[in-house]
Amino acid sequence: MHFDPELLEKLRAARRITIFTGAGVSAESGIPTFRDAQTGLWAQFRAEDLATPEAFRRDPVTVWNWYAWRRKLIRDVLPNPAHLAIVQLERLVEHVIVITQNVDGLHQRAGSSDVIELHGNLLDNLCSECRRSVAEIKDDEVPPTCPYCGGLVRPGVVWFGEALPAQAWERAAEAMDATDVFFCVGTSSLVEPAASLPRHARACGKTVIQINPEVTSHDEIAQYVLRGKAGEVLPALLRAAWPSGS
Ligand code: OAD
User: Fold this and answer.
1) Probe ligand 1: pick from 107, 117, 212, 234, max atoms within 8 Å of CB?
2) Looking at the chain, which terminus has fewer C-beta neighbours within 10 angstroms, N or C?
3) Does this model's pTM top 0.85?
4) How far apart are CA 149 and CA 139, in angstroms?
């Protein structure tokens, strides 16, 4: 895989690198992306029809079971070379921040030390009424009920139409402002406001690098478009920029 020498020099000179990731980074761990057709029992549903407060109000059992299926998927998979290359980058660059749209926790399991979860985490639970975090849930209740107020417990993820966690969004905006290089990896860049981050990065004069096997709407804002799978491109890019591994 050949890379522009100017890109490699920019990576080596960077003190701060921000990696904005989407479902494509977890695809090589075996987790279907949102735009992949849902599989098996869930083939009849679209993510957009299940990941909403209205769907949960209308049919909490189906929505809870969909997330239980996704949680099992996550427990059965491992971080892939894309996640591991991002961890390795921390040893090569002074400051690396991951801003992820993913809710699978794989960046943290791979060893990334600074991860901003814009859309929450599938393994967290909170009460849909009092909004308290619920650590212990009973397996025989579907969905579980809140031990504090009796409300229905929901996954701790952002649903369509909901606001992003304010603190996560503020930290992501600060990271984007301070960064030297902004990677956009494995995202279709279709969902706002997350998808506005790469645009702001380019507008602020950052070096923007897009890694995706497909064309996306953000290709034209990236100075560098690396066409390929994250699990292949990221390790190759690090080897090219730091041949000695340090
Ligand atoms: P999508 O499913 O929309 O897009 C996945 C992207 O990953 C696509 O652009 C694929 O081309 C790309 N891709 C697939 N395999 C890849 C690989 N091996 N390496 C690199 N890229 C690969 O997923 P997201 O963009 O993450 O929001 O979706 C963003 C948000 O939309 C999600 O966080 C979720 C969804 O609705 C909420 O749930 C609020």
Assistant:
1) 212
2) C
3) yes
4) 18
- Tell how far the Cα of 9 is from the centroid of ligand 1, in angstroms: 29
If you measure from the C-alpha of residue 206 to the centroid of ligand 1, how many angstroms do you get, rounded to a whole number?
23
Q: How confident is the model at residue 40 (pLDDT cuts 50, 70, 90)?
A: low
**DSSP string of the chain?**
----HHHHHHHHH-SEEEEEE-THHHHTTTPPPTTSPP-GGGGGS-HHHHSSHHHHHH-HHHHHHHHHHHHHHHHT----HHHHHHHHHHTTSSEEEEEE---S-HHHHHT-S-EEETTEEEEEEEETTT--B-----TTSSS-B-TTT-PBEEEEEPPTTSPPPHHHHHHHHHHHHH-SEEEEES----STTTTHHHHHHHHTT-EEEEE-SS--TTGGG-SEEE-S-HHHHHHHHHHHH-TT--
Query: Mind listing the domains of the chain with CATH numbers?
Result: 1-31+79-119+164-246 (3.40.50.1220)
52-89 confidence digits (pLDDT tens): 999 999 999 999 999 999 999 899 999 999 999 999 99
Residues with C-beta less than 6 Å from any ligand 1 atom: 22-24, 27-28, 33-35, 47, 51, 101, 119, 158, 160, 186-188, 190-191, 212-214, 216, 229-231
Query: Ligand 1, closest atom to CA 188?
Result: 9
CA distance 227 to 151: 46
